[in-house]
Predict the 3D structure of the following.
Amino acid sequence: MSQIILITGATSGIGRHAALHLARQGHRVIATGRRRAALDSLRAEAGEHWVRCVPMDVTDLASIDAARTSVDQLTDGHGVDVLINNAGFGQGGAVLDVDPADVAAQYHTNVFGLLCVTRAFAPAMIGRGHGKIVNVSSLGGRLTLPMMGVYTSTKFAVEALSDALRIELAPLGVHVAVVQPGSIRTEFNQTMQGTTRKVERTGPWAAVYDHTDRVATAFEQYSSGPIVISRVLARIVNARRPRARYFAPFRESVLMILGTWLPTRVTDFVLARVFGVTSARPHAPALTQAWEAP
Ligand SMILES: NC(=O)c1ccc[n+]([C@@H]2O[C@H](COP(=O)([O-])OP(=O)(O)OC[C@H]3O[C@@H](n4cnc5c(N)ncnc54)[C@H](OP(=O)(O)O)[C@@H]3O)[C@@H](O)[C@H]2O)c1
């Protein structure tokens, strides 16, 4: 049955691919994002399929409010059947190297943004007594990765909020599911390399960054196309009762097993070597400077 689906962060990567995939399945897709030109090109590529583009910055309450008004107009007051909270980016760097203002910006998009958008679109679902909220988390929402701890912490937050929302909204007929992508070929890596480059590389982990850059490049080579996530999203949209969690691609399940089944001591040992963290050396002055009051 055709449903009205709103996707955040539809200007590129997973969100853009999912918008086209779901529209081609006959759903009505409201694609939202910050870059107007990218939304226009998505609309053009959708052709005769039902895709409407609405500007929305998930960190801007006025923008979210304006988007809700547009959605009400587009849907004759019905609202959306499925909300896909996908917008997000990765802040790289060792936890103590990342400027507190950048930590805040990461939380504003990945966590507070997701919550504010949910607060805007969930009431219509609650009023109707049915709907679905799909939160795009990450493999990093189950397995903390060194040198991207700030990012993975936001995805742990998304997991916890989704668990609570799932229990709280179930009696009201609204399902909540989490999608945990592994490594997917999108603009994500490029953005994360950009945020990592901004980090002061003079502290104890200075020598680690070259290693993590190489790991990121290697991961990218083995990454899957966004279709693997679009298929999962389509399964959730079409399911009567979606599961709580979906992980994809399947071939990266070993990483999930590493994160959830092995003793922490073993996981730490493996991750420290994979990410080259063993080459960290004391360098107190730079660390102090990085944590001056914001
Ligand atoms: N690719 C992976 O390997 C991977 C793995 C695990 C999880 N994920 C998650 O998947 C989701 C989608 O990422 P992606 O891989 O598709 O990366 P992407 O190609 O960089 O797409 C990210 C999208 O989020 C949007 N966005 C960022 N900040 C925003 C804001 N303040 N308001 C509205 N939109 C905003 C971007 O819009 P702009 O164009 O305006 O910047 C873009 O459309 C993210 O939540 C990410 O954490 C990705």
Residues 4-290 form a domain with the Rossmann fold fold (CATH 3.40.50.720). The pocket of NAP is lined by residues 8-9, 11-15, 33-35, 38, 57-59, 86-89, 109, 113, 136, 138, 181, 183-184, 186-188, 191 (CB under 6 Å).
